[in-house]
Amino acid sequence: MSIFICFIFLFPLFLILFKNLSPPKQKLPPGPTGLPIIGNLHQLGRFLHKSFHKLSLKHGPVMLLHFGFVPVVVFSSKETAKEVLKTHDLETCTRPKMVATGLFTYNFKDIGFTQYGEDWREMKKLVGLELFSPKKQKSFKYIREEESDLLVKKLSKSAQTQTPIDLGKALFSFTAGIIFRLAFGQNFRECDFIHMERVEELVLESETSVGTLAFTDFFPTGLGWLIDRISGQHSRVNKVFSKLTSFFQHVIDDHLKTKQRQDPSDLVSTMLDMINKPTKSGSLKITSDHLKGVMSDVFLAGVNAGVITMIWAMTELTRHPKVMKKLQEEIRTTLGSNKDRITEEDLQKVDYMKLVIEETFRLHPPAPLLLPRLTMSDIKIQGYNIPKNTMIEINTYTIGRDPKCWTNPEEFIPERFINTSISYKGQHFEFLPFGAGRRSCPGMALGITIVELGLLNLLYFFNWSLPEGMSIADIDMEEVGALNIAKKLPLELVPTLHHS
Ligand code: HEM
Ligand SMILES: *[C@@H]1O[C@H](CO)[C@@H](O)[C@H](O)[C@H]1NC(C)=O
Ligand SMILES: *[C@@H]1O[C@H](CO)[C@@H](O)[C@H](O)[C@H]1NC(C)=O
Fold first, then answer.
1. Residue 183 counted as domain residue
2. pLDDT at position 191, please?
3. Which segment of the chain is annotated as a signal peptide (predicted)?
4. Is 332 in the pocket of ligand 3 (CB under 6 A)?
């Protein structure tokens, strides 16, 4: 008998032996069957949160997929989100290293995309002190109120002529005005090197670049690298990045030129002062890459989520005139009818508006998948083994629509939040617009204040109607986006001054 035939007969025997000798297979989570090499990539559509949603209805709240060679586990229930973000927070709180996130953060010198560790902690502390501390919030109050005045002025002009206004543009200018003045010491309305419109484009382009899947991340070196270069992904992303870098450089140069800074100082000037000096607490040396990394975070994470939330809120209010009426009546009764200006104290008085914002977050979480995490060791969740170096996605879009947590989940009913203790602060895992645990959003308080202030100004001073010839049924609810999911078509409404 030739060796070959011998081998054919013996091969099954080897297989059986080998199977019995190898250690028992760990129980991995279920998931859709993929193809060799590409894994499940062909089963994903235009929007990851919606593709995951559909697949999880079939495969359950702990679901294993493969993006090329990279294992990804998607969690889609309140219970599993809690196990990841609370019980196993420490073992899952790093971020995957990806090509685009590395590029846009100057090789992970930021907070949002950087791997867990001492540098991340120190950067977070520094930015927390300079941008998010209650003291800073107080000292920047005048900026928020000035920007509110500008917003109302702009809307009043449209009201006088009864022309529709693109709310997205108006609210971007409002939000970016606030955030960039706090962080960059500049609003880009009166600036000689860039226009607000270009800033908005650049925010969206940068977000798309960072949020779009790159093949290099999911295939062994060589193959993915090649695909990204052939498809143009590589050059697209790098083009956007070089625009962003030169924009940041302009901001920095501007700071260096005008040494005399006004008080309170902004994040950029504070960090410029620290460059190449050791921080008070010790080890981390701040470099210009850290400065630009943080600017990137502010740019990518600070502006858009708030704008998106306000747009979805105004969209839902327009679709639900009864809710709009109840809300405006509450606001106007509570605040009286002769205010010239909304102040931040007013925000504490309008309870129903808070419910409207919560309901908006539930149905339209701006970052439905939060930001991806990565397991740092093997963990077990609901009996399933999740190996080290698995990418983790929490689908808050699915959780916000889970009939086990919410009655009539598809309906917009702000009253559902009345008699619950559920809040967005990361303690209630059925409702996670800002995430939870170590990696949750550090800009939450600022973000909420901006959203409340923007909406209260819109709703106190103006009545809103659809442009002539348009009815509620014509409002388009399609989505767009990569990291942040926004309303696709602009929301155009006609303001009418309520008090004249
Ligand atoms: C309505 C407004 C906002 C929403 C809904 C929002 C939402 C989020 C979400 C969902 C995450 C990911 C959390 C996770 O992975 O578990 C996040 C992270 C982050 N956000 Fe926000 N955010 C908002 C405003 C802001 C603002 C105003 C800033 C700063 C100017 C900011 C800075 C950040 C940063 C730096 C991170 C990364 C944190 C880390 O990885 O350690 N966000 N945000
Ligand atoms: C909330 O609770 C109060 C008092 O406990 C009750 O009067 C009210 O009807 C409840 N509202 C809703 C929407 O359940
Ligand atoms: C604005 O709407 C309220 C009802 O929500 C109405 O009572 C009021 O007359 C309207 N004001 C104007 C100027 O149309």
1. yes
2. 78
3. 1-18
4. no
Q: Which residues of the chain have pLDDT under 50?
A: 1, 6-7, 13-15, 17-18
206 Cα: distance to centroid of ligand 1 (angstroms)? 16
Measured distance CA(396)–CA(434) in Å, rounded:
10
Domain of 114, CATH number, reads: 1.10.630.10
Q: What is the pLDDT at residue 264? A: 62
* Cβ of 451 below 6 Å from ligand 1: yes
Within 10 Å of residue 136's Cβ, how many Cβ atoms? 18
441 annotated as ligand-binding: yes
The Å distance, Cα 418 to ligand 3 centre, comes to: 26
Q: Rg (Cα) of the chain, in Å, rounded? A: 25
Q: What CA–CA distances, in Å, run from 278 to 39, 169, 283, 287?
A: 46, 41, 7, 10
Residue nearest to atom 1 of ligand 3 (CA): 463
Please report how the helices 267-274 and 118-127 are oriented relative to each other, as an axis angle in degrees rounded to 10.
130
Query: Which residues on neighbouring strands pair with residue 65, listed in sequence order?
Result: 72
CA dihedral sign, ordered 78, 84, 89, 93: negative
CA dihedral 334, 337, 341, 344 (to 10 degrees): 0
Q: Is residue 288 situated within a structural domain?
A: yes
What pLDDT shows up at residue 1? 44
User: Which of the ligands is closest to the CA of residue 414?
Assistant: 2
Q: What is the C-alpha to C-alpha distance for residues 356 and 414, in angstroms, rounded to an integer?
A: 5
Residue nearest to atom 6 of ligand 2 (CA): 419
Q: How many helices (H) and strands (E) does the chain have?
A: 18, 13
Q: Is residue 365 part of a domain?
A: no
- Measured in angstroms, how far is the CA atom of residue 499 from the centroid of ligand 1? 36
Domain span at residue 201? 99-358+466-497
How many Å apart are CA 393 and CA 395, to the nearest integer? 6
Looking at the structure of the chain, the number of domains it has is 1
* CA–CA separation, 369 and 393 (whole Å): 6
Ligand 3 lined by 328 (C-beta under 6 Å): yes
Q: How far is the CA of 419 from the centre of ligand 2 (A)?
A: 6
Ligand 3 contact, 51 CB (< 6 A): no
* Contact 418 CB / ligand 2 (< 6 Å): yes
Ligand nearest to the CA of 495: 3
pLDDT of residue 26: 81
Q: Is residue 212 part of a domain?
A: yes
Structure confidence at residue 276 (pLDDT)? 67
Tokens 């809300």, located at residue = 327
Rounded to two decimals, the pTM is: 0.93
- 325 CA to centre of ligand 3 in angstroms: 9
Query: Is residue 493 within a helix (H) or strand (E), and if so which, with residue range?
Result: strand 492-497
Rounded Cα gap, residues 234 and 228, in angstroms: 5
| Residue of 95, 133, 356, 441 to mutate, ligand 1, most atoms within 8 A of C-beta | 441
